[in-house]
Design brief:
The chain is globular. It starts with a strand and ends with a strand. Helices cover 0% and strands 50% of the residues. A hairpin with a 6-residue loop joins strand 4 and strand 5. The protein contains no helices and eleven strands. By secondary structure, the protein is mainly β.
Length: 127
């Protein structure tokens, strides 16, 4: 019922910035927990950032804390990931994920058990 579409990826030089966006459709956006994950070739998908549905609490992986910021705009059904001071290690496909409040599948913001996933957007950071 929910479709997620990521955008904003691209190639950027180390130290630069990118802003990723995830647009949701099919249901109200404000009642969903939203997460960002990334996956590099040959590696498992890892947590990047998440934002809760109610209080707006945010969570970040240690590797991106202080550099990345997650936010949401309910009026536009959009969640964004502002990425600053990018490093080559940030190179990966970035995925948007969503979980409705009350989901029995969702186990926490940092886990991969989200109900819905986008197809991803490529972020490449050159040295």
């Amino acid at each position: 019922q929910v479709q997620l579409v990521e955008s904003g990826g691209g190639l950027v030089q180390a130290g630069g910035s990118l802003r990723l966006s995830c647009v949701a459709s099919g249901r109200t956006f404000s009642s969903y927990a939203m997460g960002w994950f990334r996956q590099a070739p040959g590696k498992e998908r890892e947590f990047v950032a998440a934002i809760r549905w109610g209080g707006g609490s945010t969570y970040y992986a240690d590797s991106v804390k202080g550099r990345f910021t997650i936010s949401r705009d309910s009026a536009k059904n959009t969640v964004s990931l502002q990425m600053n001071s990018l490093k080559p290690e940030d190179t990966a496909v970035y995925y948007c994920a969503a979980a409705p409040r009350g989901s029995r599948y969702y186990t926490g913001p940092m886990n991969t058990e989200y109900d819905y996933w986008g197809q991803g957007t490529q972020v490449t950071v050159s040295s």
